[in-house]
Amino acid sequence: MKLVIVGKAAAGKDYLKNKLKMRDFTVGVSHTTRPPREGEVDGVDYHFIDEHKFTEMTGNDEFVEWMEFNGWFYGQTIEDFNKSDVMIMSKDGLAILPAKYRKQCVVIYLDMDRKTRIERLNMRDDANDTIQRRLDADEEQFKDDFKDFEIRITNPNF
Question: Does domain 2-153 correspond to CATH entry 3.30.63.10?
Answer without folding.
Answer: yes
